[in-house]
Amino acid sequence: MVNILDKIKKAGLVGRGGASFPVNLKWQAVKNEKRSEKYLVINGAEGEPGIHKDAYIINNYPEELMFGIKIALDFIKAKKIYFYLNKNLYSSKNKLNKIANAIGLKGKIIFFLKPIDSGYIAGEESTILNIIEGKNIEPRLRPPFPTCSGLYGMPTLINNIETIYNVYLVSKNKYQNKRFYSVNFDKKNKGVYFLPENLTIKQILKETDNYPDYDFFVQIGGDASGEVLNSKQLNKKVDGAGSITVYNLEKHIPEKLIKYWLSFFRDNSCGQCTPCREGTYRLYEMFENFGLKMAKEKNFTDLCDNLFLSSFCALGTAVPIAILSYFKNVYEPLIVSQKKIKGLEKNVKRKK
Amino acid sequence: MSKEKNKEIKIKIDGKSYKCIVGEKILDVAKRNNIFIPSLCHHPDLNIKANCRVCVVEIKGYNRLTTSCSTTVCEGMEIFTNSPKVKLSRNTNLKLIFAAHIEKCVDCTTRFDCELLSLAKRYGLNIANFKDRKGKRKTYKFSNSVEIDGSQCIDCRNCIDACSNIQKINYLKKEGKGYKQEIVPVEDKNIDCIYCGQCALHCPVASAQEQYDWDDVENILKNKKGKTLIAMIAPSTRISIGEVFGFPYGYNAAGQMVTALKKLGFDQVIDVNLGADITTLVEAEELLERLGDKKAKLPMITSCCPAWVKYLEFYRPDLIPHLTTSRSPQIHLGGVIKTYWAKKKNIKPKDIITVSIMPCTAKKFESRRSELKINGLYPVDEVITVRELAFLIKKNGIDFKNLKPEKSNDLFNDGSGAAVIYGASGGVMESALRTANHFICKDSKKAKICHSRIEFKEVRGMKGIKEAKIDLDGKKLNVAVVNGIGNINDILPKLNKYHYIEVMACPGGCIGGGGQIIPSSVEIVQKRMEGLYNSDRNEKIRTAHDNKDAVEAVNWVKNSKLSHKVLHTKYINRKNK
After folding, report:
1. Do A205 and A306 sit in the same domain of this protein?
2. Is the peptide bond before B519 cis (omega within 30 degrees of 0)?
3. Are A43 and A118 within one domain?
4. Which of A312, B309, B335, B533 would be a feasible disulfide site paired with A273, CB 3.0-4.6 Å?
5. Which of A286, A301, A276 is nearest to A351 (CA)?
6. How far is B495 from chain A (nearest CA, A)?
């Protein structure tokens, strides 16, 4: 079994929940804890808009996934497994449970439904621990890290579904440094593709036959918290969560996008810390008052910088990524080039 | 790990080197070295939450900032408390907090000591940078004692933690999420507020606070209409009020309080210490009666803490027979003023207005208990917290620090040392034991020895539960002191082990009360406590039974057949049925 850790390390597996933390370090940390009671939590919240890989894995590779879970369980000698699933994935519970029983996980695994309306933050790992314990739906202060004090204060390994699937591949020496990419067009999912992790955005779009024949821009790494890039910036890898969403430059309505991002974060902020609870509220308020001109306000840049600098958790730090990169990479070049697009004149309903 | 624990390391803050110990938080190291870092949600009594984000600092090598309240120091760490990034975040967060807190400064008792305003001034912030957003928030009022004004709440949740983690009452919760979240009372009918005010004591922005009555008092002072206005000062308030005016912790400012109250317009200032001595006399007598009566309910439990009484009436009405029937010091004093004192001074009781200055929010509730009325009059007409008094003193421009101390009243003295220590957890017990000890063995052969027993140090201090075996002229008494209602469940299951129990709802007793001066913390409470015990040691009279004024007042009441109206009370089953 020590073997698996070496294999994971050699393969260079990183967490596929979005944070890309080295898997072997997490596993080792839990393993090193001396306490006898340990937990394994599988994160199937898949809460980032535009990401569809967990559903894809459950539908296509359920056995492989469950074997991966068993490997993790045996490695850390967990007392119980909590398989945390959003409503959509939870519908596969019976199928997964059958496999679990067949491979000796009977009585070890608890399928846990992500609470309805719990929102984006309910996919964050320490928030999941709070939810299982019946506490507030919000992240915990770190340290202590879940690896030493997680569920009920016990050492806990939390891994994403894709991460566990990769563990299975590694154990069978089948891991080929691939990852799952969700490709979307204006928020509609086109497909999930399993491709090498070092491909550029451009290569992925071309290889999957999704490269548009019109002017476009993309958002990578999630439709809410991902970075926005224009069509000249596609020679980089997809970091974080694995998604590429294509937007039609001509047809898109800037205000609609901004409103989507800002309302998403305002309504999904858990409310624990000032920069996020108040900052997301104020950003949305500024949008209502100034529309796209908000970007010129000092308060706007201060709020964005502050979210990145001082938020409690990664949700807060991610808030400015999409809007700032959109303004910088798409909106401003559009204004500078004086290119006329229809959406620019369109306003969305601001004040309710 | 354990070897590492006390290891000394060096860090740099703003370019200067400081020694600290592994495990310390950056904020604590900064405080110790007089480096100012603002903080709002941080409170030494509570778990670190790091949610207000105003204590952020920059650490060399890190792109993002970190909260100094929650981050432990590491060898060689280089910290900046005022870098451009820190300024941006700290100021932005403060401005955001200001916009979540509707300024009601005109009527706010913390106006002169407001942390938010002082930070705005310090950093030159435009506090109206964002529009106030909580105008429509509700104010939740708990009886006439405490309130939480949602329009002033900055969502730090200190109130929830004080209520749940310190007091273990669990009356408050967070409802909703994000910008919509709100602090609300729970709907559970089996949980109720005990009015202790610990939420208020731990609120950094006076969103949770006493339901103030200083405005009533101000009106009374302005429109005397021939009434005699009497201020009554509680034992613990003299020790804490000085903190607001630059006196050191533990300084007994009773004399300045008397002068200030007279300057405010009160005709008389009478010390609640005298009331406490009366309480001791009544309670010690009842204790001995119960001990001598095989049918009597034991243990006898103290009742001078109104939050504890509310707790028992609501959660454990079955224990009502255990409560001493003795009224509390403020009610005793108010009652004696409106009977005995009025008679001696030839003033009609209805022409007297009594205003007590209390370290407590629940005392407001106690003062309105109708069963305490004497001939239709409340013994105490108004209760203000010591915070409210400090506010009135500042509001009226009284230079408290340089006031010439005055003695309280002519007819009543300012009480014994046994009364002063009522302010500390264990104090009521100790005072009653001093006097019970005297009563029980004044005629025995050991009279001289037992009379010399003044101090019962076993029941002092900050431990949650204090237990002792006391020898009263051969009678072995098992006593216990519950220091903070959060510890009550350690005692309730084993009540029959004891003869006498003191309960104070607030940690430390009244000296840590919900109406006390802010900031307050366990550490500060301990310093105040030392002040109380020093005052006791310096008193010539250290026992209630040696206080002739108190004895005379009690005797007068008894001879006038007013015992039941003035000295004793009853309790009400408030359980939710």
Report:
1. no
2. yes
3. yes
4. A312
5. A286
6. 33
Cβ neighbour number for residue A203 with a 10 Å cutoff? 16
Q: Enter the ipTM.
A: 0.94
Cβ contact, residue pair A277, B155, below 8 Å: yes
B189 touches chain A (CB under 8 A): no
Which H/E stretch holds residue A81? strand A80-85
Query: B89 and A278: CB-CB below 8 Å?
Result: no
**CA-CA-CA-CA torsion sign (B12, B17, B23, B27):** negative
Domain endpoint, select from A196, A227, A248: A248
Return the SS3 of A14.
Answer: strand
The DSSP symbol for A109 reads E
- Count CB-CB contacts under 10 A for residue A73: 22
CB A111 within 8 A of CB A93: yes
Task: Show the domains of chain B with their CATH numbers.
Answer: 2-97 (3.10.20.740), 101-214 (3.30.70.20), 235-566 (3.40.950.10)
Q: What CATH number did the domain enclosing A290 receive?
A: 1.20.1440.230
CB contact under 8 A, A309 and B179: no
Q: Is the domain of A133 the same as that of A20?
A: yes
Which of B186, B195, B185 has the alpha carbon at shortest distance from B140?
B185
* pTM score, whole prediction: 0.95
Asked whether B282 and B332 are in contact (CB, 8 A), the reply is yes
Residues A46 and A21 in one domain: yes
> What residues of chain A lie within 8 A of the CB of B89, using their CB?
275, 305-306, 309-310
Mark whether A8 and A156 lie in a shared domain.
yes
Contacts with A270 from chain B: Cβ below 8 Å: 177-178
pLDDT tens-place string over residues B419-470: 999 999 999 999 999 999 888 887 776 666 666 678 999 999 999 999 999 9
Mutating which of A310, A313, A315, A351 best tests the B interface, going by the most B Cβ atoms within 10 A? Answer: A310
Domain of residue A273 covers 254-345
The reply to whether A19 and A149 lie within a common domain is yes
Question: Chains A and B: how many Cβ contacts under 8 Å?
Answer: 101
**Which of A264, A309, A319, A351 has the highest number of chain B CBs within 10 A, making it the mutation to test binding with B?**
A309
Question: Which tens digit of pLDDT belongs to each residue from A291-311?
Answer: 999 999 999 999 999 999 999
Looking at beta carbons, which residues of chain B come within 8 Å of A141?
Answer: 48-50, 70
B217: enclosing H helix or E strand:
helix B214-222
Chain A closest-CA separation from residue B274 CA (Å)? 48
